[in-house]
């Protein structure tokens, strides 16, 4: 491993907040899995994940508190995205992610069965998709065309499939969306690593432009 790669790994280790995105997606799957295990009535192809925090749930507080914690982690990650942005477009994508994190936390405060639940759930996914598209465009602006095209593609194709495909249940659709978010977070971590191992001329913060 070259010195630049060792330095990049060391930087990631020294700045654990950059790993909050990865922690968020891992914790999301863990919370959902454990909540399903606590509620044997839950059927993946019939229900929504939010039902695990509703009146039918054996322990709705577990799922709802998990959403609050996930929202807080996602906001931290979004702030890291703003700090690491290479241009104003990427910074805007980070700002959209902050809003998405707030709506994710609100899912825990307004669980299934409460009037505002559908609104906060929908806006979490919409804001996250907006963050992905904007960050993808920002990556394109910064000169990383292949990477930017992939990220932008995730943000564009993802919601189109969500609308066109006849999903058997809300939970299946939500799992698809969370999988796309997990892929995006993984790509962003990879992008940050690549930028750290590339010459500084390829990664100039927008304040210096």
Task: Write structural notes for this entry.
- The protein is mainly alpha-helical and 209 residues long.
- The protein is 72% helix and 0% strand.
- The protein contains seven helices and no strands.
- Helix 6 packs antiparallel against helix 7.
- The two termini are 32 Å apart.
- The C terminus is likely disordered.
- Give, in order, the helices and strands: HHHHHHH
Instruction: Please outline the major beta sheet.
Output: none
Mean pLDDT: 88
Low-confidence stretches: 200-209
Question: What share of residues is helical?
Answer: over 70%
Number of domains: 1
Give Rg in angstroms: 18 Å
SS content category: mainly alpha
Count of individual helical segments:
7
Keywords:
72% helix; 209 residues; mainly alpha
